[in-house]
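Weekly structure sync, notes
Attendees: PL (lead), two postdocs, one rotation student
Agenda item 3: pending single-chain targets
PL asked that the sequence for the first pending target be pasted directly into the notes so everyone works from the same version. It is reproduced below exactly as submitted, 183 residues in total.
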Amino acid sequence: MVEHHVARLLERDEGARSAASRFSDLRFGIGLRYPHLRGIITDMEPVCIVAREQIEATGLGDRFTAVAADLMEGPYPQGADVILLGHILHDWSDDTCRRILHHCATALPSGGALLISESVLANDFSGSTVARIKDLLMLVANEPGAREWSESEYESLLNETGFQFSHVVRPDAPRDLLVARKR
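Predicted structure, written out during the meeting:
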């Protein structure tokens, strides 16, 4: 259930890690490495069925739940102080990303953290070869307008949707971690 690269990102960012007591993951799984966290795994119902089975099998039912929600339609579960979007936004157009981020803002309390795990291009659109290749793949494989975003593009998008961009953690991992707070 643990996305190891996201766990490494959290280990490197004390602010994001220490702010969390209840974690909402809009993809699938993080939390086993952090016993103080309670988690809400949010995904489509078929994924939640599997997640519930894994939660029971690992004895984490006292800390974790799985709640079905439609990524596009919401609403997302309330009660988390951190939401993780793991490898999601690059699949969608600007307008769809705004809708997803609006649902996140609605679910989070003021000051709540939004963690976005994606490959982030530099503001001049340079970046790792992998990130640039993924950017091209997004153009042909997903919704029209899907792409990898630059740091400044993320900052603008976050500001438009009720968040204050904080910083990007760039570890030696496949993805970066953008950190933002709900205003």
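Discussion points:
- The first helix runs from residue 4 to 12.
- DSSP finds six helices and seven strands in the chain.
Action: rotation student to compare against the earlier draft before next sync.
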